[in-house]
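Give me the fold.
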Amino acid sequence: MGDNGINKKEKVELKKEIGIAGAVSIIVGNMIGSGIYMTPQTLASASNPKSTMIAWVITAVGSILVALVFARLGEKYPVNGGPVVYTRDAFGDFAAFLTVWTYWIGAWICDAAVITGFLSYLSFFIPILNQSRLLAFLASTLTLWLFTGINIKGSKEVGIVAVITTVCKIVPLLIFIIIAAMHFEPSNLSTVSSEALRGTNTVSVAVGITLWAFLGLDSVSVAAGDIKNPKKNVKKATILGIIGTSIIYMGINFFAMGAVSQGYLAKSTAPLADVINKATGSSWGGGFVAIGAIIATLGATSGWILITARVALSAGEDNLFPEVFGKISPKTHTPINALVISAIAANILLLLNFVGSLQMAYNFMVLIGTLAFLPAYAFSAVGEIVLLAKKSDKFNFGIFLKNSFMSLIAFIYVLYAIYGIGANAVMWGFILMLAGIPFFVYMKVQKINEADKN
């Protein structure tokens, strides 16, 4: 794998072509994808304003703690793979496989979910996308492979796309906050979409939902092999990205809830656009936000395709996935095999749009996709404790508590988020995890046979 006890085979290397601006933009771009544009509707359907804001604070603080784990580990392990590398070094192959298996699945679910969010906002201008499942599938497939092609060309291009789309997406969001604040009605914060949602018992559910908007906080750690001066820039980009995005998120959701009733939000298929339309009594504002959402989801699509391939590449290099995933093209210096295989998986998932409406497919993918990342977050949090202990000659309870306190709080937050996602999603996540074990067994047996032959 490479630095710090991570020994990698000699191979074609990735080019470090993404600077600090691109790194911050990838984190912000991956986080501000379809999540924040669709989350107000999902929260209005499952929670109330008070519980929602409590959930945003919990998720923001918890996500910052998790991000700090990745920032510190990314500084020590400036290589591709992020949580996969940390988990393997701390706990061994099996834990690392479970981490990368669920993370990779979650990543290509994100690819498909972000594209679904893109189509939902594009339907604001092209309504037939909400009416024709075939057309929606064809449009989503074209989008997926267009940005897979950009990723195949090189990480420099991905960084450029990230910077441009991040700037273009933040401006409409700030304008949204200003307009929503001007039409803020405190009475809207007392409304609910259903009387059953009153009370703070919906906080845990809201935490599970808001976490979706924070997925991507570890993006630069996963793609550290593409980052210039990763020991410095991975940590800096992670901290800047998560804090800035948290502030934007809470501002958007608070003023959205104050501008319209919860019942109105719950019925919306493009909540931010609909809030602007209702607040201004016109259609230009909604169209403006919809354009911002389209740009945001396109940028996030590019960034998530990068992350999906990089985590699969790391797994292939470390013999956790088949060797085909670990190959880098000597021509483009990109993991073409990992990119294509991941895109095929996401494309199959997009077929869900033939079964239900875009909103149904999106909500299902949000639940499963969110949960799929949490094992990686949990293993990384406790893995940091183990990795620190390996480098320390002294041990007592005081030293343990001092070195592990923040990581343990991050771990507890992840457990709470898993609880908040709900039993049904946890069941599907557990099934996905178990489904990967036969693949791990196959890779293990293959390595044993190769060792016997040698």
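The chain has one domain: 20-453.
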